[in-house]
Structure of beta-glucosidase:
Amino acid sequence: MGSIEQSTLPADFVWGFATAAYQIEGAVNEDGRGPSIWDTFCKIPGKIAGGGSGEIACDSYHRTHEDIALLKACGAKAYRFSLSWSRIIALGGRNDPVNEKGLQFYLRFIDDLHAAGITPMVTLFHWDLPDELNKRYGGLLNKEEFVADFANYARLVFKTFGSKVKHWVTFNEPWCSSVLGYNTGSFAPGHTSDRTKSSVGDGSTEPWIVGHNILVAHGAAVKIYRDEFKTQDGGEIGITLNGDWAEPWDPENPADVEACDRKIEFAISWFADPIYHGRYPESMIKQLGDRLPAWIPEDLALVHGSNDFYGMNHYCANYIRAKTGQPELNDIAGNLELLLEDKNGVSIGPITQSPWLRPCAVGFRKLLKWLSERYGYPKIYVTENGTSVLGENDMPLEQLLDDEFRVQYFKDYIGAMADAFTLDGVNVRAYMAWSLMDNFEWAEGYETRFGVTYVDYDHDQKRIPKKSAKSIGQIFERLIQKV
Ligand code: GBH
């Protein structure tokens, strides 16, 4: 078996850090930015732990130079960040005015990154839909309108930044927008069938419609990039999918073993199968029937073959236990349970601050291999990987900054990735750690921290690097082959 000592990464491997606009920027009412669905969602009492919002967040809108200094100090080669659509077009739509100040902000930032020797990787959509589009026509639920508006926004962005940005991610984690936004209701816009949580939503149909519409919008943006920009700009474009590894709750039970593949299909292949194989997974068609939208040829032509690279967000693993009996109407997982302990009560990994996240680095190697086999060894960019630390927010500063748990996580996970490259032939070429700094952790508010940099929200969003900030560069220094 491989270990950190034996395995390596290629000499041109790119690494850095990731963030997202709503989680760091703040300045939600400045210079012509319009509200996003997250600004609206955060105002509903009880939706966000501690009642927080992205109103100030890390104040990165005013502190881009500090963020770039952090990246430089870490030795990062690349930075993945997202654009706030409603900063660029306040109302979002194709006939709405463009906000020059929004474009100027990102132009300056991209120029400053280049001046610091850092390669930008830009995500167009990290969940923060312009609120007006949700009000106007139902946002992600409305295919015609949403696809046309996203295509218009994408074209504007490619036109404005295309000479300076060579790596584009269309959507971050469409699973989250679909399932958390339209089934559990834990994310904006909060639709769910659970009437104690929301007066609107049908969790048995809406997530599948939203997922489908996002795929079409992704395909439309890729076509625009390839037809109108790629030749002159020479960049590449893909989508980022989230998904964790699956181990059987009871390895002796064939139903649990089978359910593991089904779990990954419902989480990842939902999006990746249409892109790489031109169809939805059999397991989903079987369970969902005509609740899964049918592909019309024009849409499928946009989606099939639309990835220049596979963007992979990965954090942890789960034990999977098959459910017996018919799946519930609102089931989104594939008629199975996600568990943190196996049949013998053994935990999949150590406990963190995030209830869903227990590290299990070998699962990263296994999933990289699983994806490579299913999708023909595509070029993979890991666009997020990282961990929270149990109790971190309540620690005295000195202890918090000494985040050995996070350092170990990165050693194990990056080591597992090097094993996948060296021993399994996985074509992984880039890695972005989540996250450059503590930030607005969505429904978890500010209580959960994922940064390699501490952000002091009570004192002017002061940034203080943790131990892990320097460790990532050291890990890659050991693993990347010298030319
Ligand atoms: C990433 O998603 C996001 O891209 C990023 O913005 C975020 O800050 C980061 O994770 C850390 O959370 O408890 O049942 O509701 C990672 C994938 C999928 C992980 C949904 C959390 C919640 C499952 N996420 N999951 S549940």
